[in-house]
């Protein structure tokens, strides 16, 4: 099994910054794409940003220029640097990993979520 543990959420004022981290652990053979999704009350879960093992990135239009995704493959960790935060960024943020475990079983894994609230 593969576990994802997120950290770094919290309350921040509009225009502020937060950095989310997500560390993968367990019986990992390989991690392919890692990403961050978010879900606000009443909305569907949406992709925020994703990064491949080679470092290629993809962002939602709503966060381009404000958020930066990065990863440390040696630590099986992905980060999301969020700048110029807006109230509409308020949501529960979930880490996701497309991973292969030690039994060579490939699946999508999710973290437990971390709350980000942008409010004055």
Question: Can you characterise this structure?
Answer:
The protein is mostly beta strands and 120 residues long. Helix content is 0%, strand content 60%. The chain has strands spanning 2-7, 10-12, 18-26, 28-39, 46-51, 57-59, 67-72, 77-82, 91-101, 106-110, 114-118. β9 and β10 (106-110) form a beta hairpin.
Question: Main traits of this protein?
Answer:
120 residues; mainly beta; 7-stranded mixed sheet; 4-stranded antiparallel sheet; 0% helix; 60% strand; elongated
Poorly predicted runs of 5 or more residues:
none
What overall form do the CA principal axes indicate?
elongated
- Distance between the first and last residues' Cα: 40 Å
On the 0 to 100 scale, the average pLDDT is: 96
Major sheet details? 7 strands, mixed
The amount of helix comes to under 10%
Structural class from helices and strands? mainly beta
User: How many strand units?
Assistant: 11
Oligomer: single chain
């Amino acid at each position: 099994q593969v576990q994802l543990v997120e950290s770094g959420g919290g309350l921040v004022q509009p225009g502020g910054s937060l950095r989310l981290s997500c560390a993968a652990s367990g019986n990992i053979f390989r991690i392919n794409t890692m990403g961050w999704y978010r879900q606000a009350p009443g909305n569907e879960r949406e992709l925020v940003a994703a990064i491949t093992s080679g470092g290629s990135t993809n962002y939602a239009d709503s966060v381009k220029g404000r958020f930066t995704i990065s990863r440390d493959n040696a630590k099986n960790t992905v980060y999301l640097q969020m700048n110029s935060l807006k109230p509409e960024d308020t949501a529960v943020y979930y880490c996701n990993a497309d991973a292969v475990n030690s039994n060579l079983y490939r699946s999508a894994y999710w973290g437990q979520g971390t709350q980000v609230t942008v409010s004055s």
